[in-house]
Amino acid sequence: MREPISDFSEAARLDALQQLKLLDTSPSESFDRITRMASQIFGLPIAAVSLTDSDRQWFKSRVGVAHQSIPRDKAPCAHVAESAAPLIIEDFQADAYYAESVLGRAGTRFYAGAPLITREGYGLGALCVLGTEPRKASSSELAALVDLAAMVMNQIELEHAFGRVDPVSGVPTRNQFRDDLADLARDQAGEQYLAVFVDLARDEQISRIARVMGSAQVDEVVREATRSLQKVLGPDRTVYHISSAQFAFLSPPKAEPFAYMQELRAALTSIRQTSSVRFVTNVAIGVRPFILGEVAADDVLRGAASAAQDARESDGVALYSLSSDLAHKRQYGLLNAFGSALDDDSQLRLVFQPRIELSTGRCIGAEALLRWRHPEIGDVSPGEFIPVIEQTSMARAATQWVLDAAMDQLAAWRLPPEEFALSVNLSAANLAEDDLIARIQLGLLKRGLRPEQIEFELTESAIMGEPDRALAMLREMAATGVCLAIDDFGTGHSSLAYLQRVPARVVKIDQTFVRNLTEPGGADFVLLETMIGLAHKLGFRVVAEGVEMQETAIILAQLGCDEAQGFWFGRPMEPEQFSAWRACSSGVSPMQASA
Asked: What positions does the domain EAL occupy (predicted)?
């Protein structure tokens, strides 16, 4: 009989083993390589990295062994773990204790094991080799086995210490997910799984928690979520900590997506109910079906994360959509390509859409519009690339490019300042640029332009994002003499009281209110009549966008609208085309044209 170790020591040893999160993980080539080397050194058919659990010997790596584990009772690797010392059994049949063990009855005659020992001295198990014939082990063979066991421990500690286990949640990280998925694909290629991505909160929500309650509270939210997920998944499933507030795990094999999503909705409800910050965060779950061996680990995670973002617009759980994913990929590709376009004179250009004074029919201005011709995919719609760029740091560079090109063109046209003004669009991101006004003034000065020759358009929503900051910036900008216009008027959420404080001179009524206006009377007519009258009473000059028919222009003129732009007057034109068009324009008002 072997002397058992004390309950206290055994509990500490098992705790050390559990902390390493090795049990019941997928096979790993980094361990298999060492196991094969041990088998080759001894010239034996069987070798294993054997971990001693409370009731079993579980094989993290194995050569020549079909089963994943054997009972711990009378297992020689258990003795190696308990004693933390090498063990040689030259002949099982000559050892009364081991002769009747599982290995002995299976025909094993020789065993050599070297302990896997942590830095704290706990024995986790053994690197062992086995044979079906009695034999001795030379001192050099034993020394090699001890060295290889140390290499196994180094690998264990490396995986645990360097990006394999998150120090806050205590669960495996993205790096471990990659390795585990690769190992799983090697053993179960072709099997269908679902990858589940759990996003605890938006980035700004996490930042708000950290700002108000401290980073320790964020850590507690992560630990709380980890416990909830582990409870939902059970002891046989692994949850991975992918990033600060994001987790992932795999479904059981061949899980049906929609049925599994119903289970996830129930789990989501449980997580929400137990969260200490459930009122200031919102959890989103994305599900990505995939075939093992056909999709890279990072792409599996990316697709599931994309679905999680879609889930924020639904009921909190969403299935991966290829079309949505392709759209996001295209946006990202365009975003990357736009940086190069800014440095390439052949890709970006401005076109100009005329603005017509309705009372005279004269072209008294134009709106500068950015266009992009990608060298491979051709023309890219502004509605596709501009909203994406405005959400990134490239908003500044893009606006500066437009400013420079617009001012260059304005200077080249040499039009009288009192007769013509060019309008340029600004985004909410531009209002956060402290040097924007200085850059505008410098640009005007370098080209000999007067401030009243340029107008800047901003949407109501851009102004209302940070109203106090925006108002301060706009007042300073207006003080320089440039004209400010509120674009897409009527579609935002600003109050009339706030609009009175904006130092704008122009409001541009959005085309949604204009496009279907074909005859007096009706809801559109009444609404436009009210908007134009209200804008005039507030001191604004009114421009109507989206005029596509002469009847619309006539009605707008009758309502007292000051200016209009749209396809009926002229589409956006290249600079030379615009100059020729303006030179030939009739200067006849819509009312006169209809007479």
From this structure: 331-586
Q: What sign does the CA torsion over 320, 326, 328, 333 have?
A: positive
Predicted pLDDT of residue 515 = 85
Domain boundaries, the chain: 7-161, 174-320, 351-370+393-585
Give the residue among 87, 100, 223 at the shortest CA–CA distance from 167.
223
Topology of domain 7-161 in CATH is: Beta-Lactamase (3.30.450)
The position carrying tokens 């507690």 is 220
| Fold assignment, 174-320 | Alpha-Beta Plaits (3.30.70)
d(CA 410, CA 346): 20
pLDDT, averaged per 10 consecutive residues of the chain (595 residues), comes to 61 87 84 96 96 96 93 95 95 93 95 93 95 95 96 84 74 87 87 92 80 84 86 86 91 89 81 63 88 90 91 84 82 89 93 95 95 94 90 91 97 91 93 93 96 92 80 93 90 66 91 85 86 92 94 93 95 95 76 61
Distance, CA of 131 to CA of 43 (rounded, Å): 9
Asked whether the domain spanning 351-370+393-585 has the same topology as the one spanning 174-320, the reply is no
Query: Superfamily assignment of 351-370+393-585 in CATH?
Result: EAL domain (3.20.20.450)
Contact 71/54 with Cβ under 8 angstroms? no
Q: What is the pLDDT of residue 114?
A: 97
User: Which pair of tokens denotes residue 372?
Assistant: 């992009």
324 touches 347 (CB < 8 A): no
State how far the Cα of 139 lies from the Cα of 132, in Å rounded to an integer.
21
CA separation for the pair 122, 115 (Å, rounded): 10
Q: How far apart are CA 386 and CA 27, in angstroms?
A: 47
Range list of β-strands (E), 255-301: 284-291
| Residue type (1 letter), 417 | P
